[in-house]
Specification:
heterodimer, A: about 120 residues, mainly beta, seven-stranded mixed β-sheet, about 0% helix, B: about 110 residues, six-stranded mixed β-sheet, four-stranded antiparallel β-sheet
Chain lengths: ~120, ~110
């Protein structure tokens, strides 16, 4: 059973470009979470999605960041017009179900974004 | 609001020593889960344990043990007879009804040979 997959593992962008980070949840998991880890810091929650729905985006920056989890395909975290401060490791996690069931979130290996 | 504090930023021990990583949490929810994750130098996050707020039994798994004390809002993690491969950043995390995880800042553990 494959774990959570993220690609690319490393992404380099110049300021002003767009970054697209992909996350394929574990088989059978329908809930996806994105977290960001800035250098030398802990992980911070960004957004929680189910298929075709954003459940909680309270951790997302108001501008330039968006996330989706379509009916088919991976979840995408999109960062438009990247700036140096966006350089971080972005982790995706998935769980089988919802808050009421309190399932453990399993993390992918992360995508390390570097903005030049 | 939820908060997790890991007061120890860095710990350095010599192999075979026991080491305890502290975690203190804050929440007003009565139902919650506590977690520990390991982040080795390769960068991935490895799930270690999940504990719910109604189960204060301590847990042991091999050289790892966890001490959950609701009275002090602490969920400490002890590694017995540490090994070089235990060197990593360890994160304590809290999950409440919102389903998001709130992480501490992490403790960098270095085990020297």
């Amino acid at each position: 059973n494959a774990g959570v997959m993220q690609n690319p593992r490393h992404l380099v962008r110049r300021r002003g470009q767009e970054a697209r980070l992909r996350c394929s949840p574990m088989k059978g998991h329908s809930h996806v979470y994105w977290y960001r880890q800035l250098p030398e810091e802990g992980l911070k929650f960004m957004v929680y999605l189910q298929k075709e729905n954003i459940i909680d985006e309270s951790g997302m920056p108001k501008e330039r960041f968006s996330a989706e989890f379509p009916k088919e395909g991976p979840s995408i975290l999109r960062i438009q017009q990247v700036v140096r401060g966006d350089s971080a490791a972005y982790f995706c996690a998935s769980s089988p179900c919802c808050a009421r069931v309190w399932d453990t979130q399993y993390f992918g290996p992360g995508t390390r974004l570097t903005v030049l | 609001a939820q908060k997790v504090t890991q007061a120890q930023t860095e710990i350095s021990v010599v192999e075979k020593e026991d080491v305890t990583l502290d975690c203190v949490y804050e929440t007003r929810d009565t139902t919650y889960y506590l977690f520990w994750y390991k982040q080795p130098p390769s960068g991935e996050l490895v799930f270690l344990i999940r504990r719910n707020s109604f189960d204060e039994q301590n847990e042991i798994s091999g050289r790892y043990s966890w001490n959950f004390q609701k009275s002090t809002s602490s969920f400490n993690f002890t590694i017995t007879a540490s090994q070089v491969v235990d060197s990593a950043v360890y994160f304590c995390a809290l999950e409440t009804s919102g389903s998001r995880l709130t992480f501490g800042e992490g403790t960098q553990l270095t085990v020297n040979p």
